[in-house]
Amino acid sequence: MSDTPPDRLSVNPNSPHHDAAALERGVGVRFKGVEKTNVDEYCVSEGWVRLSVGKTVDRKGAAMTVKLQGEVVPYFQDIAANTPSDAAES
């Protein structure tokens, strides 16, 4: 597997954009420069994220989400953990 996360990824196993191998490695997402931990789906090329809204669910039991537009930067968390931080170098 490459060190670049997929262009589009979803945590929903029923989605055609679900990639279990990438999710096992741990994918982090920065949206507009802020780390987001509640991302259900993202698309880098289209510039949007789908965030879950609290613990609210719809009538089928799926999490309620909101879609926001902006700069999306995904990264693999296992690579980020192995990279020395700027503070450690100084």
Description:
The protein has 90 residues and is α+β, with helices and mostly antiparallel strands. It is 18% helix and 42% strand. It has one domain. The strands form 2 sheets. It has a 4-stranded antiparallel sheet with strand order 1-4-5-6, with no helix packed on it. A 3-stranded antiparallel sheet has the order 3-2-7. Strand 2 and strand 3 form a beta hairpin.
Write down how many β-strands occur, each being a DSSP E stretch of 2 or more residues. Answer: 7
Shape: globular
Looking at the chains present, what oligomeric state does this protein adopt? single chain
Question: Helicity, in percent?
Answer: 10-25%
Distance between the termini: 32 Å
Gist?
The chain has helices at residues 20-25, 77-82, 86-89, and strands at residues 8-10, 27-31, 34-36, 39-43, 48-57, 63-69, 72-76. By secondary structure, the chain is α+β, with helices and mostly antiparallel strands. The longest helix is centred in the first third of the chain and has 6 residues, at 20-25.
List the helices and strands and how they pair.
Layout: E1 8-10, H1 20-25, E2 27-31, E3 34-36, E4 39-43, E5 48-57, E6 63-69, E7 72-76, H2 77-82, H3 86-89
Antiparallel strand pairs: 1-4, 2-3, 2-7, 4-5, 5-6
Give me some keywords for this one.
90 residues, alpha+beta, four-stranded antiparallel sheet, three-stranded antiparallel sheet, 18% helix
